[in-house]
């Protein structure tokens, strides 16, 4: 009897990303994920044990890939300012290439992180740590003014998540001429975030009281 074909966990994760992004954790169906991945449910459960296990594995995989992208981006910059510019480009590219990331993150925020266990939170925490290390280097070298690293991180991340998650709405607004002007393209938006971040970290900026 021929042995069954081996199924890569990555194929199941890719199918799960589409399903969880579209329906959220509660609405996602294991049957639909299995059909999309072209596996039976027994094989899915063999790899991930449960729907919860699959969801958390997807998040940990996504956060791990994002952290790798940020580290690689930062490694090519010579100054803290250049590193942050490259990290912003890297974050935006990652979110654009992994369309499920923004949708799942927005759902988790709305549900107060109800499905994040300690291991998944640890994977998520790698992202602000990378940014914090760059900012601290800039502060130490007197290139940046002292700021709270999380404030800087979320000031960068939040608008990128909202902008990229909102692409379908922006396209509809543009098609109906409700946008109040020309569409903002991806590169122009990234440059805006880079400029805003540099201004926020400007050593000579007057802090808000």
Can you walk me through this structure?
The protein is an all-alpha fold. The chain has one domain (55-201): Tetracycline Repressor, domain 2. Helix content is 74%, strand content 0%. It is globular and about 60 Å long.
How are the SSEs placed, and which strands pair?
Blueprint (H helix, E strand, L loop, with lengths): L8 H19 L2 H8 L3 H8 L2 H25 L4 H18 L1 H12 L7 H23 L8 H17 L1 H9 L10 H16 L8
Helix pairs in contact: 1-2, 1-4, 1-6, 4-5, 4-7, 5-7, 5-8, 5-10, 6-8, 7-8, 8-10
What is the number of domains?
1
The total strand number stands at: 0
* Overall SS class: mainly alpha
Unreliable sequence segments: none
Shape: globular
Output the CATH homologous superfamily. Tetracycline Repressor, domain 2
Quick structural gist:
The protein is mostly helical. It has 10 helices and no strands.
Top keywords for this entry?
mainly alpha
């Amino acid at each position: 009897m021929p042995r069954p074909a081996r199924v890569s966990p990555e194929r199941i994760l890719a199918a799960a990303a589409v399903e969880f992004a579209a329906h959220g954790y509660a609405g996602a169906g294991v049957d639909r994920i299995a059909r999309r991945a072209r596996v039976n449910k027994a094989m899915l459960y063999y790899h991930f044990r449960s729907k919860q296990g699959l969801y958390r594995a997807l998040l940990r995989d996504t956060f791990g890939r994002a952290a790798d992208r940020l580290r690689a981006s930062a490694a090519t910059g010579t100054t803290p300012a250049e590193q942050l510019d490259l990290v912003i480009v890297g974050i935006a590219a990652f979110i654009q290439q992994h369309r499920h990331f923004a949708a799942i993150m927005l759902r988790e925020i709305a549900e107060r992180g109800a499905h994040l266990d300690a291991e998944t939170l640890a994977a998520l925490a790698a992202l602000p740590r990378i940014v914090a290390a760059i900012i601290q280097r800039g502060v130490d070298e007197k290139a940046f003014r002292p700021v709270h690293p999380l404030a800087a991180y979320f000031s960068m991340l939040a608008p990128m998540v909202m902008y990229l998650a909102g692409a379908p709405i922006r396209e509809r607004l543009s098609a109906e001429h409700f946008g109040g002007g020309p569409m903002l393209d991806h590169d122009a938006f990234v440059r805006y975030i880079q400029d805003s971040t540099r201004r926020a970290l400007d050593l000579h900026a007057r802090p808000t009281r």
